Amino acid sequence: MLKKPCRIFHKNLRQNLSEEDIETQSLAIANMALKMNVWNKTYYHIFLSITEQKEVNTEYILQILAGKDKDVILSKSEFETCKMTHFLLTENTKIKKSPYNIPEPIDGIEVPNTKIDVVFVPVLGYDKQGNRVGYGKGFYDKFLSECKPEVIKIGLSFFNPVDCIEDANPCDIKLDYCITPHAIFQF
């Protein structure tokens, strides 16, 4: 499958999910995440869900991170450069939706990419080799390429992988894992 049809296919699958489906499956994804051996790290980057896009609700994983007293990193997207700036989530962090409905920190304590140990990655579609399809702007590929080589990249998806994303290229950063409500895929 090519990226563009994969993107369209998975957006359509998501649109068929009810709010209850999203909540139930997001909780199942968080419970699956607890089974992983990744909780001994310090800095965890997570995205805040775009509810209008019916993304996995990351609130449950945020609760796990808070319960484990981990440092949580959130990003702010700069659409002119397709880059992200990363901020430490604190009790003083103010979140505002961007013009693209992305919940983002307004400002805060900036954290360099090289500090981040684990990244929870939003996924539209992905394949059995760990290639991922997002919204097509390359924000996460740029960000992940600037992280330390050993950063753990974990996709979150409601759906199983497709066999192959045929037009994946060397600039696309592969996932290490993808968590669904029923399985953890390792690549």
Automatic annotation (TrEMBL):
Broad enzyme group: ligase
Cofactor(s) this protein cannot do without: Mg(2+)
Residues reported in the UniProt entry to bind substrate: I50, E55
Pfam families reported in the protein's UniProt record: 5-FTHF_cyc-lig (PF01812)
The EC number(s) this enzyme carries: 6.3.3.2
Official protein name in the record: 5-formyltetrahydrofolate cyclo-ligase
Domain of life: Bacteria
SUPFAM superfamilies on file: NagB/RpiA/CoA transferase-like
Keywords: ATP-binding, Ligase, Magnesium, Metal-binding, Nucleotide-binding
Catalytic reaction(s) noted: (6S)-5-formyl-5,6,7,8-tetrahydrofolate + ATP = (6R)-5,10-methenyltetrahydrofolate + ADP + phosphate
One of the GO BP terms on file: tetrahydrofolate interconversion
